[in-house]
Design brief:
- The complex is a heterodimer of chains A (about 240) and B (about 260).
- With about 240 residues, chain A is mainly beta.
- Helix content of chain A is about 10%, strand content about 40%.
- Chain A is built from 1 helix and 18 strands.
- Chain A has one helix spanning about 1-25; strands spanning about 30, 40-45, 85-90, 95, 105-110, 115, 120-125, 125-130, 140, 150-155, 160-165, 170-175, 180-185, 190-195, 200-205, 210-215, 220-230, 235-240.
- Chain B has about 260 residues and is mostly helical.
- In chain B, helix 6 (about 155-170) crosses helix 9.
- The chains are: A mainly beta (about 240), B mainly alpha (about 260).
- At the A-B interface, strand 9 and strand 10 of A face loops of B.
Chain lengths: ~240, ~260
């Protein structure tokens, strides 16, 4: 009996060891119940001169894809200068709502040599399904350091599932169609959003306090802003990229 | 008389025994010793790296040594942990044995020579140092090596099936060319993860970078070449199909090109 107890204690200790080592691996974000959280609704705008954007001069030419310049980098709404595919996130939040890892995997599809959607923002630990919707060979290639990189050939209707464990901004490319690429932004807290076609975003259930909000765009870079969140209130913020 | 015969017999037997023992010792293969690879960075490793590796790969393993400028393909930048020739799945880090293999055998068609001129201790001693250059080895562990089963027997049919995969299913010719000369329509625009231009491999030369055996060629389709546009086809092809493709790729070797 004594031996059994000792054994139990030993395994318990082992178990505790495993759990504690996992804890140290995890980031410094703690999940709490947010009762009277505030909401941030905002808009990301590009006010630069749209006529100065680079044109694809070789669009009609039969040149290798690499000689042509990509033109889908900057999608700006003509109505309100809203910028599409900008990722807004809170960078310095240490506690907040529960990290919910979606059970239905987000999808990135390759259709007519284009990745759809162009930018995907996920929370760390989420798996993404990468599809090939074209009747030809594509490759999906990432160059990450912390997350395991991959480079896989995919044929029609292939579905590849990949999990991203660490926060990183990842470029996903196809080596056979150099023009097409997508971004996967992996974040370590659940407070983020991608702007829609008019540049709008919304982040809710933020515990009251002052936080650093960051917006990232592949072409225009990063902007930061400090915002004070009051309980049960909706604050409006605006990020403006002035010139390209 | 009896004694003499006995003595003779004993003499004969002992002579035979001695001769066969000598033979056995002579024939006995020098069995490969299990490789002992140090886990910590040692002084010997640092010295060996500095003397033999850093002129090309740079003091900090960034692939920017003084000799690197004039080289193409460029010496490997170890900071990303992307190693081409592995037995582990796509994207995974290499095992220590994979690294030891590349150091010992070199990479044909490049400036990486086989470093078998160094002692085994010297070659193994640099491995922990190479790993220390990349953050990736702290975060991730190499996955288990791919299981290479028994090779399918090469026949005319397997080569023909391999050709179908090369030309129709995977369209390998887009980069590697119809004849396997590395001159496909997409060949010119390929670049590696570090932004340097990279040429798809010319199979006709027969000097495969990761080794010439059919097992080596099979592994390249299965694991891909990390850091390059060459993907893994582990999901796309069955085990047998990969052997078919191996046989076809090997059949593309042109004997007259190999002597060049």
């Amino acid at each position: 009996m004594k031996q059994l107890l000792l054994l139990c204690a030993f395994f318990g200790f082992l178990n505790w060891n495993v759990i504690s080592s996992e804890d140290t691996l995890a980031d410094n974000y703690t999940e709490v119940e947010v009762k009277d959280g505030g909401t941030v609704v905002g808009n990301v705008k590009y006010m630069g001169d749209l006529t100065t954007l680079s044109l694809n001069l070789y669009a009609e030419w039969e040149l290798p894809e690499i000689s042509k310049t990509a033109t889908e980098k900057l999608i700006v709404s003509m109505v309100n200068h809203g910028l599409k595919y900008a990722v807004v996130s809170i960078t310095d939040i240490t506690h907040g709502k529960k990290k919910v890892i979606p059970t239905i995997h987000p999808i990135i599809d390759q259709q007519r040599n284009t990745f759809i959607p162009h930018v995907t923002a996920i929370i760390s630990g989420t798996a993404i399904d990468i599809l090939n919707g074209d009747e030809e060979l594509h490759t999906v290639h990432t160059r990450t350091i912390k997350n395991q990189p991959f480079n896989l050939g995919t044929t029609y209707k292939q579905r590849i599932s990949k999990t991203f464990e660490y926060p990183e901004t990842i470029k996903l490319t196809c080596d056979l169609h150099k023009k097409s690429y997508a971004w996967i932004v992996v974040l370590d807290n659940p407070y983020f959003d991608i702007t829609d076609k008019n540049g709008y975003f919304e982040i809710c259930d933020i515990p009251p306090g002052t936080y650093k909000f960051q917006v990232w765009h592949e072409e225009l870079g990063k902007l930061e802003k400090e915002v004070k969140i009051n309980p049960k209130e909706t604050s409006n913020i605006e990020f403006i990229y002035s010139q390209y | 008389m009896k004694h003499k015969a006995l003595l003779n017999k004993v003499g004969l037997w002992s002579a035979t025994a001695a001769a066969s023992a000598a033979l056995v010792i002579g024939i006995a293969p020098i069995t490969a010793k299990a490789l002992t690879i140090p886990t910590e960075v040692t002084e010997e490793g640092k010295n060996t790296y500095k003397k033999y590796c850093s002129p090309c790969h740079g003091e900090e393993g960034k692939g920017d040594g003084p000799l690197a400028r004039s080289m193409l393909p460029k010496p490997r930048d170890f900071t990303r942990g992307a190693y081409k020739f592995r037995t582990t799945p796509s994207g995974s880090l290499p095992t220590d044995e994979d690294m030891y293999r590349t150091i010992s055998y070199g990479v044909p068609n490049s400036t990486m020579i086989p470093w078998d001129i160094l002692t085994e201790e010297q070659r193994t001693s640099v491995i922990p140092l190479l790993k220390s250059f990349s953050e990736a080895f702290e975060v991730r562990k190499p996955e288990a090596p791919v299981d290479v089963g028994l090779e399918v027997r090469p026949t005319e049919k397997t080569v023909a099936d391999g050709k179908k995969i090369y030309e129709e299913k995977l369209e390998c010719w887009k980069c590697h060319g119809v004849e396997g000369r590395g001159d496909g329509p997409s060949a010119a625009e390929q670049e590696d993860d570090f932004g340097f231009p990279i040429k798809p491999f010319d199979f006709t030369t027969g000097k495969f970078k990761g080794g010439n055996s059919s097992r080596d060629v099979y592994l390249r389709f299965t694991t891909g070449l990390n850091g390059t546009p060459m993907p893994s086809f582990a999901k796309e092809l069955t085990d047998e199909q990969r052997w078919y493709l191996t046989h076809y790729v090997i059949s593309l070797i042109k004997p007259e090109e190999t002597s060049k």
